[in-house]
From TrEMBL:
Residues 85-198 form the GST C-terminal domain. PROSITE patterns: GST_CTER, GST_NTER. This is Glutathione S-transferase. GO terms for molecular function: transferase activity. InterPro entries: Glutathione-S-Trfase_C-like, Glutathione-S-Trfase_C_sf, Glutathione_S-Trfase, Glutathione_S-Trfase_N, Thioredoxin-like_sf. The keyword Transferase applies. It comes from Cystobacter fuscus. The lineage of its organism: Bacteria, Pseudomonadati, Myxococcota, Myxococcia, Myxococcales. Gene3D superfamilies: 1.20.1050.10, Glutaredoxin. It holds the Pfam family GST_N. Keywords: Transferase. Residues 1-79 form the GST N-terminal domain.
């Protein structure tokens, strides 16, 4: 397997999951600033010139969520996804999609707003209220739980914790100590540390 990767992007999720799986893979680092993701060779893999891209034999995937779902199911013996038909499968799918589709756009909107000059910053009060509603749902779900879906670590924790980590750096988790503690626990995992090193 080969992962096309750039640091501080959603590609880190895919690398983290590969490290959790402890399966061999080749890491192809690309420099976004040097436009290495817009070469004809890379555009043949990802038509928008983004990362991550996973090449797994004849299968070529982009979108970090699709890659995480694929990898977790590809190695069922690693137990990073509940098997289809199991009691925990529905919750796993619900929370991994909730993280990506409901939480991530709100956090990313706040992130991009922080990158704007002061005079161009938008009023995100409506989005911030919605974000707090979403964080409250997660806060309730994680009350007394170590993991978001079921009783063990899954790919849903990879996706959720990666998004919550960005939220924490933006100080969006203030007032949500359970979410901060959850994020910190996942950040301390050995595979997480390997995924963000070098």
């Amino acid at each position: 397997m080969k992962l096309y990767f750039a640091p501080r992007t959603r590609a880190t999720r895919a690398r983290w999951l590969l490290e959790e799986l402890e399966v061999p893979y080749e890491l192809v680092k690309l420099d976004v600033a040097k436009q290495e993701t817009t070469t004809p060779a890379h555009l043949a893999l990802h038509p928008l010139g983004e990362v991550p891209v996973l090449v797994d034999g004849a299968t070529v995937l982009f979108e970090s969520l699709a890659i995480c779902l694929h990898l977790a199911d590809r190695f069922p013996e690693k137990k990073l996804a509940p098997p289809p038909g199991s009691a925990d499968r529905g919750a796993y799918l619900q929370w991994i999609v909730f993280a990506e589709v409901t939480l991530d756009p709100l956090v990313v909107e706040h992130y991009w707003n922080t990158q704007q000059p002061e005079e161009k910053k938008a009023d995100l009060s409506r989005q911030h209220a919605r974000l707090n509603d979403v964080l409250e749902v997660l806060d309730v779900r994680l009350d007394g739980r170590e993991f978001i879906a079921g009783d063990s670590f899954t790919a849903a924790d990879v996706v959720l914790a990666s998004i919550l980590h960005l939220a924490h750096t933006l100080k969006l988790l203030d007032g949500y100590p359970k979410l901060f503690e959850y994020t910190l626990r996942q950040a301390k995992r050995p595979a997480t540390r390997r995924a963000v090193s070098g």
